[in-house]
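step 3/5: co-fold with pyridoxal-5'-phosphate
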Amino acid sequence: MKPASLRDIPSVEELLSRPPLAALAADISRGYLVERVREVLEELRVELRAGTSAGNPLAGLEERIAERARRGLQPSLRPVINATGVILHTNLGRAPLAAEAAERVREVAACYTNLEYDLEAGARGKRDVHAARLLQQLLGAPAVVVNNNAAAVLLALNSLAEGGEVIVSRGELIEIGGSFRIPDVMAKSGAVLREVGTTNRTRLADYEAALNDRTRLLLRVHPSNYRIVGFTERPSLEALVALGRRAGVPVFEDLGSGCLFDLRPFGIADEPVAGDSLKAGADLVSFSGDKLLGGPQAGILAGRKDLIERLRRNPLFRALRVDKMTYAALEATLAAYLRGTPDALEVALPIARMIRATAEEIAERARALVAGLSSLTPQALSLKVELVPGESVIGGGSTPGQFLKTTLIALTHPTLSAAEVEARLRTATLPVIARVEQDRVLLDLRTVFPEQEPALRRALEALS
Ligand SMILES: *Cc1c(COP(=O)(O)O)cnc(C)c1O
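step 4/5: write tokens
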């Protein structure tokens, strides 16, 4: 048989009439299909000219196009199994929503709502009333919600300090992953950064010396994803508040993670609780909705009524606003906190469950998963599976250097390298994201939902 040449390539029309593509034409537009045909034919021409294709490149051409057409319509955003043990994994979308929050999103998504309609007055209302009541009850202060905490910081600096100076300690000029840098946000806000102190030590006197008639704000930033240890000093929030009061300058604290309850009982120290900062006198605080709060992506600003009013009046607030689905998820999440007890929270919030799970509970799940594995497929035994002690982290730019004890499933494959196993898991139908350490693939069930375990087991069985 002579090798296929450019002249053997069928016409677009002919390809479209072949069964797999003709079947697709029933519910996919012709324009879209023609584009995919042209795309694949162009690749084919390149392959034929280069002589790189093995076998007959024309065989199965219509299946190749049909597959391309189907793949092109698949969503890019998909669920994955997080087996990394990083609870708030920024690359994996941070906090998974509570079931109730997801249900509320579903409820409002495909219908009309009172988003900006006052049902009592029968007139136009404001979207920022949603979540405000719950936040007021939880934090004891008025609050507004924007797109994320980066937006919250930008809005606060622009509303309260544009054209003026903001004093910040050099030890708090942070960068959060994804290029949120305090000096850059400050520049965009139109406020002038006034750095004081040194990287490791900043005293109240440093702030005091920098005060002048252009000072609009004292900014305190939680060093979320790092700690300065050793010979260090930082004034307490109370001391900074007292200075702000004396100078008539508000204190704004960017808390970052948005912890609403004390995590010390779970072995996590050092996370500031939003309500405590307000009680200590901070005039304004901001934090993320999807870090330790466990809700949707959002930025929450709470504090003095007059300051919140100024934020609301800023045209930027309109540009940074959130949609009805965010409000729906946030309200359900906040309601779980208001209901109160740690046990209720654990039932409602996936991240609370994940934080509280013990290494022994995780070991039990791991043992059951591994046992199910070997009984289902004897050949799976060629995969070496061990349970080893390890550590999970909270992540999401919080609690650096603190670990939760866990039990890991360590995989060693007889023929595939750890990197190859990791890649196979990652490209499974339901992708499994794992860690690789010392040429072993490590799976941490702390961040795997129990209902995902069967899919994880199937992905492991497919390895052998
Ligand atoms: C995470 C974080 C931010 C950014 O919050 P996003 O919700 O990701 O926009 C800002 N400041 C601090 C201190 C943070 O920890």
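step 5/5: annotate
The first strand starts at residue 81 and ends at 82.
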